[in-house]
Write a structure and sequence with these properties.
Helix content is 41%, strand content 11%. The radius of gyration is 40 Å and the shape is elongated. It contains 23 helices and 16 strands.
């Protein structure tokens, strides 16, 4: 237990918390000397109180002056002696006693006054203008200086001893509390987990909301995960308040463990985003929230993508504001945003720049942004077409940087592009990634290209300074498309408010258990990061933001937003240069209601002035201009589109060179599936069945799955998954389709696209 004063931060492994402050036994104060001063000269202090040297000089010159004046004016010789005696009593005794100085200082002061008074009395009586008087005065000055210097050193040593004794007493009192905690938790850990640890450091959090323990594990193969697995049991045994979880992690070396124990539920409290918008750098970390001990969570995104998961109502939109605020404060980051909800997450970060350009009025009651204000978001894409341009530009920048800055990387002996304000990193924030990654793309080549480029950027652009931050409702493949996004996102955030089962935390942090059962406050969750700059999954609380915060941060950081380097801008071309043109970004400031039938950024896949790509349109139940649905006419149109897009069969009665076969249900005369709307007989749900098969044919060699088919058919036919699975089984048994893969990864390919055909 003798090492309880150890600074706990030295016992941690990779952890987002900063350095911790322990009450330790104070080190002795080092005596000041002339060597501490510039040039190593002795201090000459001309202010009151004097030092040993200046005091001696002042005393001797004063005594000499008084002696000369007294001899010239026939002063009674006894007066200087009386003054010296009074000084010895008042300054030598009185002040020394009041300030609790040592006896040596008291004697020195009294002797100085008496010697000065005695010499002056003698000099007035015998004449100060004698060599004897001058010599004795000089000797008196040297003696007084030596006495004063020796007394000062002794006084400082005595003062340090007193202060050290007081500090030691305070340390003993505080350390007694830590010793009691250490003993209590040693017994508790052994009682709950069966591991007999030895606690060697205890740190009380500055917030008063808990403390941390560092302990040595016993010999014999005990590991820290044995204690981590019993974290809930330890909290229950300690009778901690609800919401106070115990975080356990490995120490700075194997055989050590660190426990962070919250005694107050600070996660339930509300913390506003700090108003200190000081400059940040991507290379030194960006704060994304607070740990239970109120230390900031620092994330490092130079080489890492991030995935943020949160169900509705968990505070995900507020967290995105925190992410964008951190990027805006960085001097070496350019932020691009993809948001198919009319760019809602990026609008507040762009509006001040639009006000400065005269394109938008300021909010009511606020002055317009000053001229020259730059947007905190450098590019926003609210439609798949604009996202395609953005991602295409990002890949072009990646290729250009590899060639343009090879000499720079060689000069700095690195394979990573040296990020700086002159060569900024591009952070692409994809809000609600499920809208992008899981949207059906079999009939939308633009969306298919966007989905492929997002994953390509995650895989290939790390070295050249392009990274992504994606958000989604959950971590299921139905929301992310596949597991590739999770695999390439070392930084993970699971917001747990509104989530009862903790599924998101379990999907992000599969190797390390993180207890999210008591993190129910909005904005609370689990955060963790893999890699050299990473840290174990740990509870955290996000900051609360207000709508005005985006405006304040944008105005405060406008002058520090970097410009895209010339090589990257040239590679991005017109896609980047024209990103704020009226025809591409005018929707940001054009508040007029769009004409009926026109595309708006609110509709994923819609771009102003661009027709929908030719392809199969399954939404035949859309209302007509009059507000009613002519189902007969639209059904006929739907069938006609099938025939026009997929003319794969002949009409009944059409001569066929193949041998006649026994027709099956829903099949044409040749035994294959008849897609014609002129078929003489069609069973119930025949249109939906045909449309389902068309989806498989249209998917080509990649095939499609039951979930994607259900989403495509639910809105047009109301067909549910069990029905679709029945068709798939029947077609697979008959050879019409081929099943590829198993379980949730199963895909269905039409026989004409199957391998070997």
């Amino acid at each position: 237990m003798s090492e309880h004063g150890l600074n706990l931060s030295s016992t941690r492994g990779n952890h987002p918390a900063g350095a911790h402050s322990l009450v330790k036994e104070p080190a002795p104060r080092r005596r000041r000397s002339g060597k501490d001063k510039p040039g190593g000269r002795l201090p000459l202090d001309w202010s009151v109180p004097h030092g040993p040297v200046s005091g001696a000089i002042s005393a001797t010159t004063g005594a000499g002056a008084v002696a000369l004046l007294g001899a010239a004016t026939s002063m009674p010789p006894g007066w200087p002696m009386a003054i010296g005696a009074a000084g010895a009593i008042g300054h030598g005794v009185g002040v020394s006693v009041r300030r609790k100085l040592t006896g040596r200082t008291l004697v020195t002061r009294c002797a100085s006054w008496l010697l000065a008074g005695g010499w002056t009395t003698w000099a007035v009586a015998t004449g100060p203008l004698q060599w004897a008087a001058a010599g004795s005065l000089a000797a008196l000055g040297v003696g007084v200086g030596a006495m004063a210097s020796h007394a000062a050193v002794h006084e400082e040593a005595a003062e340090e001893e007193r202060m050290s004794a007081e500090a030691k007493e305070l340390y003993r009192e505080l350390n007694a509390d830590r010793l009691a905690l250490a003993t209590e938790w040693e017994e508790r850990i052994h009682r709950v987990s069966g591991v007999q640890v030895s606690v060697f450091a205890v740190e009380m959090w500055a917030t008063g909301a808990g403390f941390s323990l560092a302990a040595e594990l016993p010999a014999g193969g005990a590991v820290w995960t044995q204690i981590q697995n019993q974290a809930k049991g330890l909290a229950a045994d300690a009778r901690l308040p609800l919401g106070c979880a115990i975080h356990v992690e490995e120490g700075d070396r194997q055989g050590r463990v660190v426990l962070d124990i919250a005694t107050e539920n600070v996660i339930d409290r509300t913390y506003t985003y700090p108003t200190d918008y000081a400059p940040l750098s991507l290379l030194t970390g960006i704060p994304w929230g607070l740990l239970p001990n109120s230390d900031p969570v620092q994330v490092f995104l130079r080489e890492a993508c991030a995935l943020i998961l949160g169900p509705p109502g968990s505070g995900k939109s507020t967290f995105v504001d925190v992410v964008l605020a951190g990027f805006a404060r960085c001097t070496d980051v350019l932020t691009w945003v993809i948001d198919f909800k009319a760019g809602a997450s990026a609008r507040p970060w762009i509006r001040p720049a639009l006000e400065a350009a005269g394109k938008m009025p300021p909010p009511a009651g606020r002055p317009a942004a000053p001229a020259g204000t730059r947007p905190a978001v450098d590019w926003v894409a609210s439609t798949p077409k604009e996202a395609q341009r953005m991602l295409r530009a990002a890949l072009a920048i990646n290729a250009a940087r590899q060639h343009a800055y090879q000499d720079l990387m060689d000069a700095q002996d690195t394979t990573l592009l040296p990020i700086s304000p002159q060569l900024p990193q591009i952070m692409i924030v994809v809000d609600e990634g499920a809208e992008l990654l899981s949207a059906p793309s079999f009939r939308d080549p633009v969306m298919k290209d966007v989905q492929a480029n997002v994953k390509k950027i995650m895989r290939t652009t790390r070295a050249m300074g392009l990274r992504l931050v994606l958000t989604a409702v959950d971590g299921n493949t139905s929301a992310l498309g596949n597991t590739e996004v999770r695999k390439f996102s070392p930084v993970g955030v699971a917001l747990t408010s509104g989530e009862s089962a903790g599924n998101n935390a379990a999907k992000l942090f599969t190797r390390v258990k993180a207890d999210a059962s008591q993190l129910k406050a909005k904005g609370a969750g689990i955060i963790g990061a893999a890699g050299a700059d990473g840290f174990a999954p740990t509870p955290f609380k996000g900051w609360k933001t207000a709508p005005s915060m985006a405006r304040e941060v944008t105005l405060a950081t406008s002058d520090r937003h970097p410009l895209l380097d010339a090589a990257s801008a040239d590679a991005a071309g017109e896609d980047y240069a024209d990103r704020w043109n009226d025809d591409r970004a005018g929707w940001l400031w054009n508040t007029t209601t769009p004409a009926a039938g026109s595309a708006t950024p609110d509709t994923p896949g819609a771009d102003a002035g661009q027709e929908r790509p030719a392809g199969l349109n399954l939404s035949y139940r859309k209302p007509t201009a009059g507000g009613t649905v002519d189902e007969e006419a639209l059904a006929a149109r739907f069938r006609a589109e099938i025939d026009a897009a997929f003319a794969t069969t002949d009409e009944p009665g059409t001569p066929d060179a193949r041998a006649p076969q026994e027709p099956t249900e829903g099949a044409g005369e040749d035994g294959g599936l008849s897609l014609s709307y002129r078929a003489a007989s069609e069973p119930a749900q025949g249109a939906a069945r045909k449309a389902a098969l068309m989806l498989i044919i249209a998917a080509g060699p990649d095939g499609t799955g039951a979930s994607a088919m259900e989403r495509a058919l639910a809105g047009t036919h109301g067909t549910r998954r069990p029905v679709i699975q029945g068709w798939l089984k029947e077609w697979a048994e008959s050879g019409e389709i081929v099943r590829v893969g198993e379980g949730s990864k199963a895909r269905y390919v039409h026989h004409r696209h199957a391998p070997g055909n």
